[in-house]
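Inputs:
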Amino acid sequence: MAAQRAIRGRVWKFGACLDSGNIAGVMAGVDPEFRNKVRPGDIIVAGINFGMGSSSEHAPRSLKEAGIAAVAAESISNIYLRTLVNIGLPAIECPGVSEMVAEGDEVEIDLRAGKIRKLGDGEVRNFPPFSDHAMAILEKGGLIPFLRETLGNKGKAGGA
Amino acid sequence: MGMTISEKICARAAGSERVRPGDMINAHVDKLYIKDLRFAKGEDPKGLYGVFKDLLKDIGVTRAWDPEKVIINFDEQPARSKVRAEGQLTAKRFKEEHGATIYEGETAGIGHNVMVEKGHVKPGEFIVGADSHSCTYGALGCFSTGIGFTETVGVLATGRIWLKVPSAIRVALAGKRPPWIWGKDIILRIMAEIGPNGAVNKTVEYGGEAVKDISIDSRLSMCNMAVEMVALNAVFPPDEKTIDYVKQVSRGDFQALQSDPDSEYESTFEFDLTDMEPYVAAPGVPSNARPLSEFVGTKIDQAFIGTCSNARIEDLRVVARILKGRQVRARVRMIVTPASFGAYFQARDEGLLDTIHKAKAMVTTSECGLCTRPSLAAEEVCISSGNRNFPGRMGDRNSKIFLASPASVAAAAIAGEIVDPREFL
């Protein structure tokens, strides 16, 4: 499913420096019950260094499979952020986001404009908008579908 | 305005005259490292993506990108799970169909060390690896960073990767390094200062007068830990030590690039190594580091020398020097896992393994070992020369991991508690 440019959802909040080992299994290392509480379309908001550590894709994919619509954190590990985008899940680095929202808040994220808005009082935080390239990958639903479409059936590597 | 080493390498890889931090580039990759586990279907339990071969077929690519540039290593031998065994078998089949270099058996070890020792890493190259510690290679003056499984498929399909050129932090090292201070102590001190969030997605560039005195093995450890500061990459300017080493292990030309004197750094951190104390990181995150003296007396159950961070020949030498004629404390288990078979055989030839055995430490085959395989029960405490001390990283979530230099780990194994390694040198 291709990512929407504007994403609206309910917030679950997590702390700082969560490594991918503890995120794996839908945040199982932090809250084993989370997988039963989360609903498709929900949004994760976290502190600094979300997804630090291993490059294993078990952690980001478990969030995608749980139906998480976006991850917004104070900062996100490079590999983790890229993997989220590459599997078609928008990942946003937005300083101040964890102060602005509380668990259960509804927020709306505009990826192109680089804005995250709290629906209750309309408070807004800005983040650097997604590049055209990242946006194109998200709109195709991830890197694999993106490559399938852009490389077509050229049948040979390096044909892009 | 000049360019840093990393910017020059990014520009060359992107086919541009120059790049600036923040530029989006589509870079040509010089080398791709993949570990055996990434070939396992277990990496992909729902079969969404399949293994590389199936995926490439799905994309419409019948031949993977340049087999000369793809290096695969078996990080765990013998395979201890069906998933791992299947990954290794699939990797061999991939090699037959698409071509690649595979290191297995006594040519392998931990992939990052194998990459370096077998001459696959050269100054000036743009390298990516399907493992987070692929930032290690920057020690030899190249640009290198870790990528995920999906992105690895992209590189196998196109030979390229999209990347935002990182801004750079300069870490200037001054003064005279005391002989008992190794790369691990220095990087733990640096991380404590920069903090867990200070280098996110940036380049860490080492420099300063004290750099030339730091060994290649210690430089590898200092670049290996860069990902624990969430840096994109880390780089040492290539010098005589680098060039001698690279010429010794590899053939062919390379381009040793230096940062221009007027390059731009987002910030600079300065450290004087003169009279520096050994450092230890408390459990949680590696940046929880403080001088070792603050932890003296902490009881330990396990002492581990291993991982892509610190189990090279320099480390094995100092461990043997400390253990010689001494015994590991009775209730402590000490495990030594050389970082590669290259280091293992050299340690054997130098008689180091015998010394370690006689001190009642276990020496294992060369692999990732206890860094990725649970060994700690709840409440147990480990001191490790590794790079990660996250909760549950080496076993139960309520176990504790302290990170320290191999000298500090060996000293703690003898004393049964954290102790100043200088007492044993």
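The mean pLDDT of chain B is 95. Flag for discussion at group meeting.
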